[in-house]
Each structure stands twice: as C-alpha cells, then as structure tokens.
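name: query_chain
kind: protein
chains: 1
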Amino acid sequence: MLVFLNGQIIKEEDAKIGINDLSYQFGYGLFETIKCEAGMPVFFEEHYRRLSHSAREIGMPFPVDMPEIRKWVIDVLKANKLTSARAKIIISKRAEEKFNVLILTMPLENLPSSYKLLGKKLERDPISISFRHKTTSRADSYLAYKDAMEKGFNDVIYLNEKNELVECSRANIFLIMQDKIITPRLESGILSGVTRSRLLDISKDASLQVEEKNVHSLYLNKAKSVFVTNAIIGLMRVSKIVLEEKEYTFPDDKVITDLKKIYDSNILQYVSKNNNLSTTFS
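structure:
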C-alpha cells in the first residue's frame, strides 16, 4: 500500500518516522479514522473539527487547514485505487516544533450482521486526555479489543468502578428502553464520537427521546435492544453482551432499522453533495 507522510506519497515500507517523535516516546499524538465512499472521506468536516479541538486541548496545534488534509486523503485513496475504504490520519509531534502527518488507507472489511460484546472493568479518570481525545496512547484499548476478538466477540464494553457502562474500545453504545434511548454522557470519560453526535441529532429529528446519563449495567435487564456506533461500522446492532457470568441477548428492533436507514441516507447525501471534490483534487 502507498501512504502519505509529510507531503509525499510513498510505499508503506519506505515510510519512516524518527525516534524523537513524541507519539513513539510518550503516546503524544492524535488520530482520526474516517470512512470513505466513492473516493470521498465521509463527514470530513466533523472529523477535522474534533482533531483540531483535541490538538488545541493537549497543546499540540498543527498548522494544516481542512481543505489541505482532505486533499491529502483523497490523493492517497486515488494512489491506492480505492473508493470504499477506511482512512487513518495520525498527527504526531517531534521534539522540536515540527509535526509528522501520516495518512493510511485500506479497503473496508465486510461487517457482521450484529456485534457481540464482552464486558471488562476499567478504572479510568473521566477527565484523562487519553480517553476524552483520540490519542495514540491506547494500549489498554488495544489489549482489551484483542482479548475480546480472541474469545469470539467483536469488541469489549467497558464498565467503570460503579458498574456503569462507559463505551466500547472502538465505539459508543446506545440502549433502547421502553420510552427512550439512553447513552452514557460525555462526562463519564467517553470519546465524543462523530457518529454518536450525528445519531443523537438523527434521533431527535425523528422525535425519539434521547437521554445522556450514567448508564448502570442493570439497565441491560430492561433494554429492548442495543446498538453501537463508530465511523466505520456506522450503526451496528448488538445481539449479545456478556458481563462476567451473565449473558444478555437482544433482538433486532425497528428503531435500529429506521435509524440505520436515515444514517446511511446521510452518507449518500454527503457523498452526492461533495463528489465534485474528488475530481477537483486530481
């Protein structure tokens, strides 16, 4: 595969970053993973805003504007002859006042019809920058995800010390109750997901009551259905959650089906509206 590194598109094996890069030494870096359709990074503006906000929050602002980074992503997609893909942007800082910008792209994988989640306790500081922002300091998430996959699950669902659901290692979680949809609030120490924010807006526009709150695991006993969201999977139904020795199963739900249709329609509308950009950046 070809990658973008600091202004050049080169072979993956030729991409080299110096040992003084602070993401390598301290995990002091940021990343965004973006779904691409028809050669276009979807909802790019929202990903860029989050990346820029996080960079300011951790004292690592980078001098690259949105159109320039979007052009780089489109250029790498074209170089790899990819249209439907995932793109990963990694911004890291060197010891001096310079930055490394790395962009990787790869084909989208086939998705399952539903997810199975494995519960895992994780004590975390809810104001830690490592959890509130997409930093490269994510060893705990990688290990938890790897463990879940090896045990036949699709992801892990974290529980805090109060036995409250927080988030998955790579997704936000929503529970459909009898009269509303509930999801953990940002103050729980979760990532403010781009797809999560969009689903909150879609739900409200569809006149569905949505509440951000502390979600104790006991809510799973009364949940009608569960789904998770991230940029690559969009909206994914959860069919099973295992917490310690207890197993919860959930059926499909019309609310999930309807929300997924609206979300997928949003993607099509975005691509249709912006498809001229992929031809402009040629």
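note: The two ends are 19 Å apart (CA to CA).
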